[in-house]
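Chains adopt folds. We examine one example:
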Amino acid sequence: MKLTIVSRNPKSTKFPVTLELAGTASTIKTSDVNKALAAKFPKYYPDRQRLTTEDKKVLDLDKTLEEQGINEQSSIYFKDLGAQIGWRTVFMIEYAGPILIHPIFYYLSKFIYGSSFTHSPMQTVTYYMVMAHFFKRELETVFVHRFSHGTMPFRNVFKNSAHYWLLSGANLAFWVYGPWFAQGRAAAVRNDVWIYGSVAVWAWAELSNLITHITLRNLRPPGTRVRAIPYGYGFDLVSCPNYFFEFLAWTVVCFLTTSWSAFLFNIVATGQMYVWAVKKHKNYKKEFKDYPRNRTSMFPFIA
């Protein structure tokens, strides 16, 4: 079968190009076209390609050309997505920021703030909560998460990392570990109920978040892009309980520290997670006709 590949870039000198593939439209999948194009132009490895129809509908890698209305008279349109980086690597880089930054502000406070002081119990508890949270995220990235999309454009890693390195890294650490919350300051006073209650709720939220991540992992067999309806703990109420429990964990940090920097990070993070949750919720309902109607996107009974 012969296929014409046209570039979305009008300045391209390499395209259009004709590819010859063994088989017919009923047997050739989009992934086969990816591989054939990569064989002709090694620079455009499969993860770097976006193949679409003329009306910009993205072709499904696992479907045959015939299933998507493609035949020998059709043209497939190609877009170069640029140099790619694996999502697993992206997450590792993002979460490494707070892990590196918080110890600097906590242990080198004398040099950063210009005076010696003793950290209050609130500061110490917050430090260990933040560190535990991001170490958990790193471990989940390595051992739990399975990604439906293998890569993303390399240039985006800087934008994605800024959220964690700046907001939950430098900004949060600077304002929470400063002398204004030091031992003996009125702003740092927390009774035992406040501290231990915060730790208990935070631990429950973090554990719940892990459980939902494991549920999502078990939906997708290794090496596949299989999608299914998640059920179980948290999923009976919302489509994205992992985001909801993440929101609760950071809300605990907000009310434990009472720092505006914690509230700022939580507001920004929750806003982004809500956008993702709404999108996933809509996709679930569109893809699965029997999707439970009682679920909301992220917040139980609300939205």
